[in-house]
Design brief:
By secondary structure, the chain is α/β, with parallel strands linked by helices. The two termini are 36 Å apart. 31% of the residues are buried. It is built from 7 helices and 13 strands. Helices cover 26% and strands 21% of the residues.
Length: 291
């Protein structure tokens, strides 16, 4: 009896998710064919992420502002005085200081995005382009959250949760950064830590201080009749070849233990459909129907 119940639960792909049912009437649809759904190739997405993540990693290795730099100059000044040499502040080679991740994004990608009050009526929090121009067919953001297989429980997490994303194969991503969803994500991320040195995923998107400013995809609002979609979702599986030291910028983690070693990590990126100017809000189509 127990086996039959377990088999039934695991085969029940389309589970009841309260938020989806309650909000179905307010969602619009985009119909595409499966062969045309991907805007960028897997390689193009991976190269774009690696380029940006490496820039973030180089910045993270720099000293914090005003600490090591000032100390180095003071040490050099003391040494010069003891040796009877003249010291000027201009002779002190100031080390590069760590930048805000948004600065790194602008320098590397040519644009910056941030969460901000939406300009849509009743839109709540949205994502705005605050600097630069997003070129067409660019990786703009990532959809963060815990990744659930079709057979795994998400009923309690889904109650009052407007941030559940359904992938084409039935996987669900819970992008809520509060309550039980936040607790589960942090627990799973710490569980999958790669030794003592490396994190397997980004822990900062559930806080106000993001180390990867791309991890705000859950706040992108749905398009309206007046404002059309300028970004689209695309699923991207992170291969096991992805550098260990850069995984700390990925905003997703599997709910199941050890699943990371059995299959590629599912992520969802947002791709720009056209050039998007500074001051514009990112808008997508919430439902994509694949036939």
């Amino acid at each position: 009896m127990q086996r039959r119940l377990k088999a039934f639960w695991e085969s029940y792909k389309y589970r009841f998710v309260p938020w989806i049912v309650a909000n179905l009437k307010n969602r619009s649809a985009r119909s595409v064919s499966s062969s045309q759904d991907d805007i960028l190739t897997h390689v193009e997405v991976e190269e774009s992420l690696l380029d940006f993540f490496n820039a973030l990693a180089r910045n993270d290795r720099l000293p914090s502002y005003g600490m090591e730099t000032e100390r180095s100059c003071q040490d050099l000044e003391s040494k010069s005085e003891s040796e009877g040499r003249q010291f000027t502040r201009g002779s002190c080679k100031m080390k590069k200081k760590k930048k805000d991740p948004l600065e790194v994004m602008f320098e590397n990608c040519g644009f910056a995005i941030e969460c901000s009050p939406s300009r849509l009526k009743g839109g709540g929090t949205g994502v705005l382009v605050t600097k630069g121009v997003i070129p067409r067919n660019s990786v703009v953001a990532m959809y963060p959250g815990t990744v659930y297989l079709p057979s795994e429980p998400i009923l309690l997490q889904s109650v009052g949760n407007p941030f559940i994303f359904r992938c084409s194969d039935g996987l669900l991503i819970d992008g809520f950064n509060r309550r039980i969803s936040k607790i589960i994500y942090k627990s799973c991320s710490q569980r999958d830590r790669l030794g003592t040195e490396y994190l397997s995923s980004d822990l900062t998107w559930v806080t106000k201080s993001l180390q990867n400013p791309m991890n705000v995809g859950q706040f992108v609002n749905n398009h309206t009749k007046e404002y059309s979609a300028n970004v689209a979702y695309q699923e991207f599986d992170v291969s096991h070849r992805f550098p260990i030291e850069l995984r700390k910028y990925l905003p997703n983690v599997f709910y199941s233990a050890n699943l990371l070693h059995q299959r590629p990590l599912r992520t969802v990126v947002l791709i720009s459909l056209r050039n998007i100017q500074a001051g514009e809000e990112l808008l997508s189509s919430y439902f994509t129907l694949i036939h």
